[in-house]
């Protein structure tokens, strides 16, 4: 059966977990009969579960879900996976707090260029962008894939992290 929490006031919350063949959780759903604090808490949980805790962009799970949904349409798309160049050296030479700042700033830069809903952190220093803009895709076809990444590189050059002493992250 479905786990249910019944309250004295008649409200109830049900928790439903969907698993794949390997028993991994692929979806967790809360349902409730109340529209008060529980509803607000659940909304918060949904946001927290879909965002990377450090950068605030989509996490791998929600990002993969968005990509799967986008692949259901026949429109052209570009899916790019990127990592921060020399990130281990940044952590080793400047410390993990500086590495965290780099990840946060890279996420902001990617969001500025590709749109917050189109970027995700896959883990560590790896990011991905789903590019669906027809103009950007046309540019890539006409001038090469690097043409759509030029604005990203320019945006990365604007990142200022004092500990890096004038250097900026590259992807």
Description:
The protein is of the alpha+beta class. It contains six helices and six strands. The protein has a three-stranded antiparallel sheet, covered by helices on one side. Strands 4-6-5 form a three-stranded antiparallel sheet, with helices on both faces. β1 (4-6) and β2 (12-19) form a beta hairpin. The model has no long low-confidence stretch (mean pLDDT 85).
Give the structural class.
alpha+beta
Cα separation of the termini: 48 Å
Strand content: 15-25%
Number of strands: 6
Question: What is the overall silhouette?
Answer: globular
Extract low-pLDDT stretches: none
Brief overview:
By secondary structure, the protein is of the alpha+beta class. It contains six helices and six strands.
How are the secondary structure elements laid out?
Elements: E1 4-6, E2 12-19, E3 25-32, H1 37-50, H2 60-70, E4 78-83, H3 87-94, H4 96-114, E5 119-123, E6 126-131, H5 134-143, H6 146-157
Antiparallel strand pairs: 1-2, 2-3, 4-6, 5-6
Please name the defining characteristics of this protein.
171 residues, alpha+beta, three-stranded antiparallel sheet, 6 helices, 21% strand, globular
């Amino acid at each position: 059966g479905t786990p249910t929490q019944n309250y004295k006031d008649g409200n109830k919350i049900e928790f439903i977990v969907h698993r794949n063949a390997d028993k991994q959780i692929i979806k967790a759903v809360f349902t409730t009969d109340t529209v008060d604090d529980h509803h607000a808490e659940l909304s918060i949980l949904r946001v927290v579960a879909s965002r990377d805790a450090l950068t605030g962009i989509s996490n791998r799970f929600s990002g993969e879900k968005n990509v799967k949904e986008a692949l259901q349409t026949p429109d052209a798309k570009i899916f790019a996976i990127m990592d921060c160049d020399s990130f281990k050296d940044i952590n080793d030479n400047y410390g993990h707090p500086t590495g965290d700042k780099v990840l946060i700033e890279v996420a902001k830069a990617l969001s500025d260029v590709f749109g917050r809903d189109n970027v995700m952190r896959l883990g560590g220093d790896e990011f991905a962008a789903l590019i669906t803009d027809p103009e950007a895709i046309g540019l890539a076809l006409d001038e090469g894939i690097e043409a759509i990444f030029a604005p990203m590189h320019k945006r990365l050059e604007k990142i200022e992290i004092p500990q890096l002493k004038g250097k900026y992250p590259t992807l």
